[in-house]
Amino acid sequence: MSSDWELETVESRLGGAVQAYQASVDDFDRELARLMGVNETGLRCLEILLATEEATPRELSTRLGLTTGSVTTMLDRLEKLGCVTRTPHPTDRRKTLVRVTPDTAQRAYGLLAPFLDDAGRQVRTRYSAEQLELVADFLTFSQEIQQRHVHRLRELPSPHPGRTGGKQTPGPRA
Q: Of 63, 72, 26, which Cα lies nearest the Cα of 150?
């Protein structure tokens, strides 16, 4: 049976490991954004579109926590760079669909493939299927908690209401 001290030590190590991992993810994303020629919010938008294939500007607004006006400006910039296309929705003429261009998808996957291949190979040789199942459960559970708190924070008013764009949001929406 574990003592309270042992549990606190493990929790402290886990917290430090999660923070270090998040910092590495942030560093990787920053470098990927630099190489893709976009800012970090633009990169996050591209990540969403690569995972979902297409989205409406309103869906991107919700996922990114940005105003629709900020999303329009971001999409204008990404479209000018040749990263995304906007087309009318096939069944709802009031909507627009946003997609990553094939060249941008190829470039992104070309930059990501070495990391994904290396990480996959090393993880498979280090951990058993049962251990990986536990890690996947931990990450999924942690992501759900994180998202709940993202939504909570988005409901709080910003101390700087004039700041918008980037990773900022203007606070609660009416």
A: 63
Q: To the nearest whole number, what is the mean pLDDT of the chain? A: 90
Integer-rounded Cα Rg, in Å, for the chain is 19
Distance CA 32, CA 173 (A): 31
Query: Domain of 99: which CATH number?
Result: 1.10.10.10
- Side chain identity at residue 172, one-letter code: P
Cα–Cα distance for residue pair 33/46, rounded to 1 Å: 10
Residue 84 phi/psi, 5-degree rounding, is: -135, 160
The CA distance from 105 to 111, in Å, is: 10
Partner residues linked to 168 by β-bridges: 165
> Sign of the C-alpha dihedral, residues 35, 39, 45, 47?
positive
d(C-alpha 95, C-alpha 79), whole Å: 17
**Does residue 58 sit within a domain?**
yes
Tell if the pTM clears 0.85, that is, is over it: no
Question: What is the mean pLDDT of the segment spanning 94-106?
Answer: 96
Dump pLDDT digits (tens) for 29-74. 999 999 999 999 999 999 999 999 999 999 999 999 899 999 999 9
The answer to the question of residue 71 being in a domain is yes
- Whether residue 167 is contained in a domain is answered as no
